[in-house]
Amino acid sequence: MSEGSSALLAVRNLKKYFPLKRTSLRQKEQLYVRANDGISLDIKEGETFGLVGESGCGKSTFGRVLLQLYPQTEGETIYYGRRPEEFQPEYRKKAPSNEPGIDLTQLKPKEMRLLRRDLQLIFQDPYSSLNPRMTVGQIIGEGVLAHGMFTRRDPGFSEYIVAIMEQCGLSPYMFHRYPHQFSGGQRQRIGIARSLAVKPRFVVCDEAVSALDVSIQSQILNLLMDLKQEQKLTYLFISHDLSVVKYISDRIGVMYLGSLVELAASKDLFQEPLHPYTEALLSAIPTTDPQNNRKVILLEGDIPSPVRPPLGCKFHTRCPYATDICKTDPPEFVEAKPGHYSACHHIDRVGEKTRRVS
Length: 358
Description:
alpha/beta; transport; five-stranded antiparallel beta sheet; P-loop_NTPase; ATP binding; ATP-binding cassette domain-containing protein
């Protein structure tokens, strides 16, 4: 999947299962919530990779597992941004392309701490993710001090924090203010400044604009795009809003019930989806175009349980194209077109339900 620029992160068969508490002494089987179930993809250096799907499909869990905030149940997460020589030999791993890479799942906590500067997270909720007892300067500077970039007595420490604030659209006079004195958009800017203050290479934006007004969303998106160009960042942009993801992403992955069902360049995905679930999501995007006669696909039924997912294709219980093979055989995630991947037995039929009425 890594065409063109080199990969910064390579994910292979990533699984994350959360064990459920046994409900009775008679229950012998240990049940798990299969939040991520065998995800494989490459995130290229310098790109914005969008990840979309319904609420509860495992998007946010994937982002946190990628950063090793949650331990992986199975699989490999290989990071190319550091030299393996910085770590002990037994924790080095050769990546599939035979380039030196570091398997994050094999690192000890102290070794993983060395990479925290490189791998950062922008939280979804700008209200609960900031410590109400700390000032803006303390919040942004906390990571800088923790990673030894400055000490509190360094004369350039305050100037550095103020410079980061101004980069993120915050005025210097806000340095000594507390989070409750700011609006939602300003708080999200504080969260962005906190993540970027340690000079990361890869940032997970976990629903970074979903809690904001539409007018503020555009400002934050433009800020993220500007910062990406200035600091040469790589983003994993998680969202349930396809319009937002289309605006900011180079490539887009679509998740359903813990699995990746489609992956393509942003333009290709919107022009010609190759999975029924993507087709249904795109058909539901509101439009003001009076010439748009595309039919809206209403998916019937609820999302199946991630504890006991359906056999075969996980989407077959809601799919308008489902046949007998979908109920028994899981589809392979294959490259249907150059750079366009899909997991569906009936790729050739996708599009029949939403073709324009002439």
